[in-house]
Design brief:
238 residues, mainly alpha, minor pseudopilin epsh fold, three-stranded antiparallel sheet, 10 helices, globular, binds manganese (II) ion
């Protein structure tokens, strides 16, 4: 090998090593991290298959986290905020922070709201009373929430929120927006969330989003929904 080529090769190798070190260091110091799933990737089968969970958590959610961390250099303030506060002040950041910060928050919440079928429990007294007041019954809530989720045009989310006046409401958002953001029409504390992006169901349900929404209720963790309801800031103040 000629000396020039060898030198170039060495330089390239050194450069690559430096880049790898830099990116490892960046990940180590990154303020935002991918949370583990609170259950095994196959725990929600047959409602949500293992491969969908692995891709959804390990690829899609990880990409939101990595892309959000990339923005920290541009917005050092991100290092001082927790993830919920980022949502509340989302209008002070650019679209990439809105999309990836929203994606990180939404998915982190979504995983906690599901449990293996039959293990999600039932809503307790406080949530049951609020649901009956607002929707008439749990069944009516399910029907209205499912219709809202099925009706999202393109990619987005359906939500059950506690509004600032303490009352429940069903809302939807496009893309990775969420009800905490200071840019959405109807704000509140999300206590239930459903991802209706195609990546959430397409491997198993193809284009049949309504089928996915219908069976998804089997893996909703209503005990966790109740816990989030009781702890919503608007409820605690009241
Ligand atoms: Mn998703």
């Amino acid at each position: 090998m000629r000396r020039n080529s060898l030198t170039a090769l060495l330089a390239a190798g050194l450069l690559m090593g430096a880049v790898m070190l830099a990116s490892a260091a960046a990940r180590e110091n990154a303020p935002f991290t991918l949370p583990d799933l609170p259950y095994a990737a196959d725990a929600l089968e047959p409602v949500i298959d293992e491969q969908t969970m692995e891709l959804h958590h390990g690829r899609h959610h990880r990409a939101y986290v990595d892309n959000l961390n990339v923005k920290v250099e541009e917005y050092p303030r991100l290092k001082t905020l927790d993830l919920e506060q980022v949502q509340r002040e989302i209008s002070s950041f650019d679209t990439a922070v809105r999309n990836n910060g929203g994606g990180h928050y939404n998915h982190s919440l979504f995983w906690t709201l599901m449990a293996p079928a039959g293990q999600g429990g039932e809503p307790g007294k406080a949530l049951t009373a609020a649901i009956e007041r607002e929707f008439g019954s749990m069944d009516a809530l399910r029907t209205q929430f499912s219709a809202a989720a099925a009706g999202v045009f393109g990619a987005g989310w359906a939500w059950l929120i506690v509004r600032d006046d303490g009352r429940l409401a069903i809302t939807t958002t496009p893309n990775q927006d969420n009800p905490l953001m200071d840019v959405v029409a109807e704000r509140g504390t999300p206590i239930l969330a459903l991802d209706v992006w195609e990546h959430a169901y397409y491997l198993q349900y193809r284009n049949r989003r309504s089928d996915y929404v219908e069976v998804w209720w089997q893996v909703v963790d209503l005990t966790e929904v109740e816990r989030r309801f009781v702890n919503a800031p608007a409820r605690k103040q009241g």
